[in-house]
Specification:
With about 300 residues, this protein is mainly alpha-helical. The chain has 9 helices and 3 strands, in the order H-H-H-H-H-H-H-E-E-H-E-H.
Length: about 300
């Protein structure tokens, strides 16, 4: 079933692909007119971006598929793989930019039609900035790491273009042509930083790294809910799977409490956790009787919080 959130994310990805192709045309047109190493490096980064966006679009489609027999927990973890691929491609693009800039610097610099090159590159930077902020905002609102990572990549592309514009303007006004490759190298170093951050998020997600802020929020919620129900909790675990949260926790009840009452309380706590973690959370509670818990686990306290 396609929800409004899913439709919004798919629409955002289609816009990203379309704008990416437009940026590629603009940047290679600017390079054809100027021969600038910085513009060529910016255009090369856009090729990598298009490849990454196409993979991200596929990953988004796959992540929204429902669970099946082979993937009972769904397909959302492709989000982290997608972010890792995008981060790796960003780093590779940055290394290529540095290579091209140094090669042109050593072999000799010759720039032409810088006025047109500046206008086209500035136009690309402005369009990408708007698209990047849009994708990041939608990604954060819908808890889609794929869209957020794609938006970060687009913003990186925008900063690249902005850096190229600054370098071209300085080279144009001062006549110091070495500023063109130097600016390209500085921008590439910033791109590497962005790519490494995406790789770190990818590894953290694939390794089921818990979010400390979410952990604190859930502990506070469980303490509050369990106190009001005169029960306790322990062994709470949480992870973000790329689209929603997975939470499981053990709840310890008095022995005399009927199972139907314990189930009602547990369901209320599950609903409270789901409200705390939009857009979606899958919560599993394990119900335990207090005295029997002591008998089965003699070395542990009954229901630590």
């Amino acid at each position: 079933m396609i929800t409004a959130d899913h439709a919004a994310m798919r629409r955002a990805m289609r816009i990203s692909v379309s704008v990416g192709l437009l940026m590629l045309i603009i940047k290679f047109t600017a390079y054809a007119y100027t021969g600038s190493a910085a513009i060529l490096s910016d255009a090369a980064e856009s090729i990598v971006h298009i490849i990454a966006v196409i993979f991200a679009a596929y990953s988004l489609w796959l992540s929204l598929k429902p669970a099946d027999e082979q993937h009972p927990y769904g397909h959302a973890k492709i989000s982290f793989f997608s972010a890792g691929v995008e981060g790796a491609l960003i780093v590779m693009a940055a290394l290529y930019i540095i290579y091209v800039a140094i090669t042109d610097w050593v072999s000799g610099l010759a720039l032409r039609n810088l006025d047109l090159g500046v206008v086209l590159t500035a136009l690309a930077a402005g369009i990408n900035a708007g698209l990047g902020y849009y994708l990041v905002r939608i990604g954060k609102r819908k808890k889609s790491l794929i869209l957020e990572a794609n938006g970060q990549h687009v913003l990186t592309d925008s900063w690249t273009s902005a850096g190229v514009v600054i370098g071209l303007l300085l080279a144009w006004t001062t006549g110091w042509l070495f500023l063109d490759p130097l600016c390209a190298i500085l921008v590439a170093l910033n791109i590497i930083y962005s790519g490494v951050r995406l790789l770190q998020r990818s590894v953290g997600g694939l390794m089921d790294e818990a979010d400390p802020a979410i952990q604190r929020r859930l502990i506070a919620l469980l303490d509050r809910e369990c106190r009001s129900a005169s029960i306790s909790h322990h062994q709470m675990r949480q992870r973000f799977n790329g689209f929603s949260y997975d939470v499981d926790v053990h709840l310890v009840f008095p022995d005399h409490l009927p199972i139907k009452d314990a189930h009602r309380i547990a369901t209320g706590i599950e609903n409270a956790i789901q409200r705390e973690l939009p857009p979606a959370a899958h919560v599993t509670t394990h119900l335990e009787p207090r005295e029997d818990h002591r008998n089965i686990h003699p070395g542990s306290p009954a229901g630590p919080t």
